[in-house]
Amino acid sequence: MKITDHRVLTECSPAKVQFFRIDPEDISATLSDILRTLMDLSWLSKFDQDFEQKAFASRAKKTIDDIKEKFDKCVNDNISKDAGEYVVSELARETMISKLDYLDIPLDELVGKKRSGNPGFDFHSQNKITDTVIFGEAKYVATTTAYSSALPQIVDFIGDGKDVEDLPELKPFCTISALQRAADGRKGFSAAFSAKTTKTDRIIANITKRPDFQSLLQYEELILVAVDL
After folding, report:
1. Once rounded to an integer, what is the mean pLDDT over residues 129-147?
2. Which of 19, 21, 37, 147 could form a disulfide with 224 if both were Cys (CB 3.0 to 4.6 A apart)?
3. How far, in whole angstroms, is CA 222 from its chain's centroid?
4. Can you give the pLDDT at residue 77?
C-alpha cells in the first residue's frame, strides 16, 4: 500500500483529527499481504497462560479460514463487500501502526469469540503518547465513497456502548491507564472507508460538515482513512 495523502485538520481543534488517503496498489498482492499479516499469531504471547493461548489460537484460526475463503472469491481485482471491509480495516490499522507508531492490536474478529459479520468495532489501536484507545469502524461500498456509512455506524456503536464492551478483550494489548481513560470517556475513533475518484478536498469538505462527524469532535482523536478501492 502507499499513503498518498496525510493531513492534520487543525480547524477541528481541540480534537486531534487526521485524514489519510491510501492506494492499495496491486490488489492481489495486497490481499496476500493482508492474509500473511493475519496469519502471524505472535500476539498470542500477550496471554500468560497456555490454555489462553490455545483458546485464542483456535478462535483466530476459524476467522482466518473464513477471511481466506472470502479473499479467494476475489477474481480479477473484483472485491466483494465482505473482502472489501477486511481490506479497509487492515490497511487503516496498518497505517496507524506504521505512520503514527500506534500499538499493533490484531483485528477484533481474531480476538473475539464472535465470527465474521457480527456488528461491532472492526479494529483498535492505542496512541502510545496520550494513552488513548482508538476504536475503528470500516465500511466498503462498491459504488460510492463510504464515509456516509462509517461515521453514523460509529455514532450508533457509541450509543449502544459497544466501545466500552470491547475493553475487556483489549486488556492484553492496551495499557490499564488507556483502558480506564476509555471507560471514562477519554477515547478516540477511526472511520475507515472505501473511496472512489472523489478528490480529497471534496471528501474532507463533505465529511466535516456532517452532524455525525461534528458529534465525534467531543472525543480526543479522530482518524479518517480513505482507501481507494
Report:
1. 93
2. 19
3. 12
4. 59
Task: Tell me the mean pLDDT in the region 202-216.
Answer: 96
Report residue 13: phi and psi, to 5°: -55, 145
pLDDT at 224: 98
DSSP structure string for the chain: -EEEEEEE-GGGTTSEEEEEEEE--SHHHHHHHHHHHHT--GGGGGS-SHHHHHHHHHHHHHHHHHHHHHHHT--TT---HHHHHHHHHHHHHHHHHHHH-------HHHHSSS-TT-SS--EEEEETTTTEEEEEEEE--SSS-THHHHHHHHHHHHHTTHHHHHHHHHTTTS-HHHHHHHHTT--EEEEEEEE-S--HHHHHHHHHTSHHHHHHTTSSEEEEEEEE-
Average pLDDT over residues 1-14: 92
Q: Which residues contact 228 (CB under 8 A, 6 or more apart)?
A: 4, 21, 22, 23, 24, 194, 195, 196
| Structure-model confidence comparison of residues 73 and 229, the more confident one | 229
Higher pLDDT, 66 or 130: 130
Q: Which residue has the cell 499493533?
A: 104
Task: Give Dmax (Cα) for the chain.
Answer: 51
